[in-house]
Each structure stands twice: as C-alpha cells, then as structure tokens.
Design brief:
- There is one protein chain.
- The protein is mainly β.
- 0% of the residues lie in helices and 57% in strands.
- It contains no helices and eleven strands.
- It has strands spanning 2-7, 10-12, 18-26, 30-39, 46-51, 57-59, 68-73, 78-83, 92-101, 108-112, 116-120.
- The strands form two sheets. Strands 2, 4, 5, 6, 9, 10 and 11 form a seven-stranded mixed beta sheet that branches.
Length: 122
C-alpha cells in the first residue's frame, strides 16, 4: 500500500505565499509523475502542475505559471508546490497524486493524498 500525506495548507492574505509538501511512503519501487490538483467549492478537480521523475514540469495555464513552482526531491519521495502572489481564486482543497510502481515490471497505479485546504482571504 502507498500513502501520500500533504501538509502546508492554511489561511493566507492575498499576495502571500504558501509551500505545500506531499510525502509518499509505503511499498514503492518507482515513482513516475507527481502532480498537484485543486478543487474549489462547486467546481471540478483540476490539474495545477505536474512534474516527471527527471524534473520536466507542466502547469495548468498562465493563471498559475509564473506564480506557482512545482519541484520534487526523489530521495525523499516528496513533491512540493511553492505558491506565491496568491489570489482569492486560488482558494481550494489541494491534492497531490503520484504514479507509483510497487515492484519491478508492475503496472503503475495512481494514488491520491487526503487534501489540504488553502484559503486566500483578508
């Protein structure tokens, strides 16, 4: 079994910053892409950013690119999301996910964290 545990969410004023972390643990042989998603009230879950095992990144669109930075530490099986210049519309529950291979030649499965609340408000 694989567990993803997020941390770093909270309440921040507009223009502020937060750094989210997501640590993977359990039965893991290899981790492929790690991603951050978010879900605002009444909206569907959407991709925010993704990062491959070699560091290649992909961002949702220009609304977050330039403000958010995704990174990972493969030695710690951890992915980060640095969020700067936060706006009220960034308010959402943020989830991480990871494509994990539990043993050699096994298929990759996607695992999700439990989510962490980010609220941007005065």
């Amino acid at each position: 079994q694989v567990q993803l545990v997020e941390s770093g969410g909270g309440l921040v004023q507009p223009g502020g910053s937060l750094r989210l972390s997501c640590a993977a643990s359990g039965n893991m042989f290899s981790i492929n892409t790690m991603s951050w998603y978010r879900q605002a009230p009444g909206k569907e879950r959407e991709l925010v950013a993704a990062i491959g095992p070699g560091g290649t990144t992909n961002y949702k669109d220009s609304s977050v690119k330039g403000r958010f930075t995704i990174s990972r530490d493969n030695a710690k099986n951890t992915v980060y999301l640095q969020m700067n210049s936060l706006k009220p519309e960034d308010t959402a529950v943020y989830y991480c996910n990871a494509e994990v291979q539990s043993y050699v030649r096994a298929p990759y499965y996607i695992y999700w964290g439990q989510g962490t609340q980010v609220t941007v408000s005065t």
